[in-house]
Design brief:
By secondary structure, the chain is mainly β. The protein has one helix spanning 60-65; strands spanning 3-8, 12-17, 35-37. A hairpin with a 3-residue loop joins strand 1 and strand 2. The longest helix has 6 residues, at 60-65. It is rod-shaped.
């Protein structure tokens, strides 16, 4: 559930955890003043699983050309490595 930032005309800035489907607040829970939802810079995105780093999606041919084959058997290996 995301946390949204609001700015109250009387109280100042506060945070409220709300479901995405819930409408934005229109009044402050403390003083009943008018509030405006702010655009937050803190998104809290969590990436799970593989594929988020450049090394995760490299093809076997690329890995072999870089000398980083995990099994040591490169299909394009000529038997010598460049120094």
């Amino acid at each position: 559930m995301p946390t949204y930032e609001y700015k109250c005309e009387k109280c100042g800035v506060f945070e409220k955890m709300q479901p995405i489907t819930e409408n934005p607040l229109t009044s402050c829970p403390e003083c009943e003043g008018r509030v405006q939802r702010l655009i937050s810079k803190n998104v809290h995105v969590v990436y799970k699983g593989g594929g988020f780093y450049t090394t995760d999606n490299r093809s076997p041919d690329y890995k072999c050309s870089e000398g980083k084959c995990s099994d040591g058997k490169c299909s394009n290996d000529s038997g010598s490595k460049a120094s």
